[in-house]
């Protein structure tokens, strides 16, 4: 009997080798688990059940017990400790020390209540909490260290009011995109600055209301309501902060919005301190007026001018636009209004869409009836006029120019088809002595012949901006200039001594000889241009690409060497001098800049030069002479910006290159967190 028991003993299952059945029962609280736990079965019954369970477990395929990958961030300190203990190698020494410091400052764990967490408890708890009991995920702190500004923090709050106002006004400009008629986020930024501290409140709000945002029209109605409130109920006098009114006629005045049509005269009554009043159309300077015979939807109202006179407003800037009134009637109104007090002090006047008179004057009486003569008389009624701008005005011609005021300091002529060099050069000779800024853009019939006597005609000129891009507008519908030569043979430019900025874009319709004379005149005038700080020139020269490559390389090197400022980094005082033995053992540096320049010429990034065929020969003697000539040139060396582009590209408002089409995404995988996922070895079926 004992032998039979010993023989059958190995067939009995060992208690330690028993396999527990995996439970899918959700974990509950401690009390409910103990109350609902069934009574333990008897010993014989448990043995039979265990044998059947082992048999069933051996028959069915073994399932992977690895927990599924979870992308949930650690929500508690226990979860974070579990991740750290599993992957200790991802912690650096600094991170491990920081983790130890955090663990040392944690609060001690809570003591469990007796009877709830008994050691004999065998119920398997779920690895995930239920959605209702899941703890709120705390935001993970950024691992990037925050760098504090070096040095002492300036006392911004102690700055005077006018300094803070200028800072905020400059940083927030512009508040509105006038082309798209939308408000920009800079207005919200000023509000946030005003709420930052008491010292910033009034300067930031003054910058916000300096040019109030009137787009959309509902906002214009709300501004009038705010300014209509009694001053006793307001903490700041907003009406005294308003200095400029920029009104989009189409979006604010021409259509109903909110309570109805916006009455501009009511707004002017609330802001008597304004100095600038501009009534503009978003297509000004973008598209010309197709027909002057069409009836405008909104016209200049007499109530606006009466309110300006009644409120004793003194304007400095105003715009006259033929989109809002018939041109002939507009010029007559200008003559009347310029004699009134609100307009007598005008310093800046902008004119839009005023056409020329098609009549030909045969005597003095007919000449006085022309639109050009009446417009010149209206402008001469302004004794303080200093800045004058014409945009899309065919009225600028040989009749108007001699009759303009002689005390102008700034003149802008944009897309005026009847302006020619034959009429413009005499105007500069008689009216250019006070000019400090000259802007000429998109004028189809104007070439550079007027620049021959520019130094003598405009001795005080500081800014010269010329753009030869032509718009594809009616009646021509092409972008080509209507002159044969940019500079005629024998014409050499002269440059005023007071020049500070030279910007000449899309120079074209000239050959290599004219372009060389143009650049030579600029280099030869370098000793006199002591105030020049910015040079931007883009040109298209008619020549072969081999000659253009060498021409570009020569003049870019010469102009940059003459005008570009060279920045030298300050020497560090902490660097110790090298020992005498080390200095003696160092190789002797190359003393010939000419040889080094020849070596580096093959590494130049010139696109045209890189295409030179193998059979072509380069004119090394010419390049060597250029290098020798640059050694004796005068070096002005005061320009912060020197940009010279010489190519044969098609003229465009914006030139694109290879960098504009490259992907801006950074290389590498920035989302990798340092943990490689474990491969899943389980079957999908």
Automatic annotation (TrEMBL):
Compositionally biased tracts (Low complexity): 1-13
Signal peptide residues on this chain, from the entry's feature table: none
Skewed-composition ranges (Basic residues): 103-113, 121-137
Region (Disordered): 1-81, 96-152, 575-629, 656-685
Protein name per its UniProtKB record: Uncharacterized protein
């Amino acid at each position: 009997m004992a032998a039979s028991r010993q023989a059958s003993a190995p067939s009995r299952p060992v208690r330690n080798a028993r396999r527990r059945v995996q439970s899918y029962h959700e974990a509950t609280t401690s009390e409910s688990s103990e109350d609902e736990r069934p009574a333990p079965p008897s010993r014989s019954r448990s043995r039979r059940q265990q044998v059947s369970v082992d048999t069933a477990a051996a028959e069915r395929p073994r399932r992977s017990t690895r927990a599924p990958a979870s992308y949930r961030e650690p929500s508690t300190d226990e979860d974070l400790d579990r991740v750290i203990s599993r992957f200790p190698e991802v912690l650096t020494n600094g991170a491990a020390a920081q983790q130890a410091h955090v663990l040392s400052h944690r609060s001690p764990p809570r003591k469990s209540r007796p009877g709830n967490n008994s050691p004999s408890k065998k119920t398997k708890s779920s690895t995930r909490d239920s959605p209702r009991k899941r703890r709120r995920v705390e935001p993970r702190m950024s691992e990037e260290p925050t760098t504090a500004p070096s040095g002492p923090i300036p006392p911004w709050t102690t700055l005077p009011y006018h300094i803070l106002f200028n800072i905020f006004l400059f940083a927030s400009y512009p508040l509105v995109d006038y082309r798209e008629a939308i408000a920009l986020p800079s207005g919200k930024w000023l509000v946030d600055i005003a709420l930052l501290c008491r010292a910033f409140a009034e300067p930031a709000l003054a910058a916000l209301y300096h040019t109030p945002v009137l787009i959309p029209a509902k906002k214009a109605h709300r501004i009038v309501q705010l300014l209509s409130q009694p001053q006793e109920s307001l903490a700041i006098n907003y009406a005294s902060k308003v200095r400029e009114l920029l009104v989009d006629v189409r979006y604010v005045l021409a259509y109903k919005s909110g309570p109805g049509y916006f009455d501009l005269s009511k707004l002017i009554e609330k802001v008597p301190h304004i100095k600038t009043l501009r009534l503009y159309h978003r297509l000004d300077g973008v598209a010309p007026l197709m027909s002057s015979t069409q009836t405008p939807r909104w016209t200049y109202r007499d109530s606006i001018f009466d309110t300006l006179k009644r409120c004793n407003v003194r304007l400095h800037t105003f715009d006259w636009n033929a989109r809002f009134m018939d041109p002939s009637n507009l010029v007559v109104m200008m003559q009347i209004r310029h004699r009134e007090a609100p307009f007598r002090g005008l310093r800046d006047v902008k004119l839009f869409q005023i056409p020329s008179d098609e009549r030909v004057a045969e005597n003095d009486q007919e000449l006085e009836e022309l639109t050009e003569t009446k417009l010149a008389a209206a402008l001469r009624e302004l004794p303080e006029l200093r800045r004058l701008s014409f945009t899309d005005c065919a009225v600028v011609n040989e009749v108007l120019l001699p009759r303009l005021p002689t005390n102008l300091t700034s003149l802008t002529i944009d897309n005026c088809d009847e302006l020619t060099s034959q009429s413009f050069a005499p105007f500069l000779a008689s009216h250019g002595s006070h000019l400090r800024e000259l802007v000429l853009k998109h004028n189809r019939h104007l070439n550079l012949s007027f620049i021959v006597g520019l130094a003598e005609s405009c001795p005080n000129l500081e800014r010269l901006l010329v753009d030869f891009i032509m718009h594809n507008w009616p009646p021509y519908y092409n972008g080509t200039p209507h002159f044969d030569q940019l500079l005629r043979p024998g014409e050499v430019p002269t440059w005023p001594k007071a020049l500070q900025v030279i910007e000449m874009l899309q120079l074209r319709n000239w050959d290599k000889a004219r372009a060389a004379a143009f650049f030579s005149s600029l280099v030869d005038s370098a000793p006199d241009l002591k105030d020049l700080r910015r040079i931007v020139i883009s040109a298209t020269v008619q020549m072969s690409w081999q000659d253009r490559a060498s021409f570009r390389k020569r003049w870019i090197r010469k102009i940059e060497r003459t005008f570009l400022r060279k920045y030298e980094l300050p020497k560090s005082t902490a660097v110790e001098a090298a020992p005498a033995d080390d200095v003696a053992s160092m190789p002797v540096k190359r003393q010939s800049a000419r040889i080094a320049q020849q070596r580096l010429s093959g590494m130049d990034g010139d696109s045209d030069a890189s295409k030179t065929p193998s059979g072509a020969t380069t004119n090394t003697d010419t390049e060597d002479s250029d290098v020798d000539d640059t050694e004796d040139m005068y070096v002005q060396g005061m320009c912060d910006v020197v940009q010279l582009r010489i190519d044969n590209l098609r003229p465009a408002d914006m030139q694109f290159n290879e960098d504009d089409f490259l992907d801006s995404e950074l290389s590498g995988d920035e989302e990798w967190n340092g943990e490689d996922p474990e491969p899943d070895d389980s079957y999908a079926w």
